[in-house]
Amino acid sequence: MRIILLRATVSPSEGTNGMENTATWQRWVRTGTLVGAAIVLPMATSVEAKPLDGDPGTMAQIPGTRRVNSVDDFSDVPPGHWAREALNDLIGDYGCIAGYPDGTYRGNRTLTRYEFAAALDACVDAILSSTDEVIFPMARLDPIERLQEEFAAELATLRGRVDSLEERVQFLEDHQFSTTTKLDGEVIFALTDSFGPAIGDDEGDPTQTAFGHRTRLNFETSFSGEDLLVTRLQSSSIQAIGDFTGTPEGDIAFADDNGSDIELDALFYEFPVTDRLTAVLIANAGASDDITTTVNPFFDGDGAYGSITAFGTRHPIYYLIEQSGFGLNYALSDSIEIAAGYMATDAASPLEGEGLFNGPYGAIGQIVFRPNDDLELGLTYLHSYNTETGTGSNRSNLRSFSEGIFGEPMPIVNNAYGVELSWQLSDGFAVGGWAGYINTQTLSTLNGQVDRGSADIFNWAVTLAFPDLGSEGSVGGLLVGMEPKVTSVSNSLESAFGEDDDTSFHLEAFYQYQLNDNIFITPGVVWLTAPDHDSDNDDIVIGTIRTTFTF
Prior knowledge:
This protein is α+β, with helices and mostly antiparallel strands. It is built from ten helices and 23 strands.
């Protein structure tokens, strides 16, 4: 139910003399017939104003309003205001006026004829509830009846709308999936292919055109109206391009292949702790965006919308934390938000070297500035143990790279720093991007095979988005960036791992066309120059057509 308090302001009616109508209105105001009223706009029911017991001339106090005894109780009705005396008459004689909890009347608020009709009806009911001639002179019935006749059509329309809403709500209640749970679905059909030889192989294109799907069913449950329990089931059959090209660069964001089996993909519970503090408990398949924003609104659609690649979807720093844990998000002010979280990759395992605190983990801290609705700036720090970004060159994923060389993954610690920006300069254009630095330290010699040391890894990107391009709801996107690259290593690691000598550029374009409210078609293309940050490798082009269905 929505409750609004307002002052009725009426223009001269069509087909009447404006001066005469204005004079009539002023006369009605002076007689105390109507200046303001409590309006109740119900979602699926109607509310009747009733006198208070023992006080026949006073309208019942409505939840969310403030009872007033005099016009002096209103802080925004100054002395000398033209309606002040009329307001005071309505308050004192009929109890027909209430105020906002903050002590204001807000008489300058505009209203529709429907709202005025409801206000008139509520106030007239309060006035007519008294039959005392002294309190209510019968001579005033004439203008009241004329007002009721004038707005009879609007009242009838308003009642019709309420009746229609009641019918629709009743239908939804009779056919709803659950009283606490909403079910929605998302299906991706993807046609993908890459062009160009694999890394270290000049024998031709390693991939053929492939077609797969990613299907999700989301059960969103709320127990209090403010909390949210998300249970997601997923089935998929889209293989990662990087498995065939020989480099994580350009991997598809929605790639996942569980053989089209149905599995529990995500499970988390988000709830408010205070008005400004929100907590989230993540039991399975958690990601950084379950804790905080990734500051990339037009590109980060979790694979279903926006960018077609993992690198374009979000700053790689966010991939260093995943799986199970918890997070906190605190609104320091309307424009500053602080978030922190912790997740472990093998949290459910009780084995040595695994579990919530002894296995691979990531801990994130982020502060986000939003000076207005169009500008967002994030500063991010992330510390992790034995996790990788899964983007960039093979060397930048040092743990996996060492396993390929020595047959055993290198234990590592990452300290990552990032800055992210999204700025919508106009309704049809937004610019964004990020820059990041990761310092990776090795924690073992792998039984004397390599000395301990560290590597410096950089990445950056610039994004351009074109909202509503071609049609409302559609989005065009362009991205130019450098996926994670090892720019230097300590002397102790030089002979074993080395660094990326050249620079590979990631160039991506997509156009997300909204066919209707439930279907989006997104063709996209990615061009990787000097793949794996090695100019000896031929360029790779990756193309896809992604169709997203929602229901």
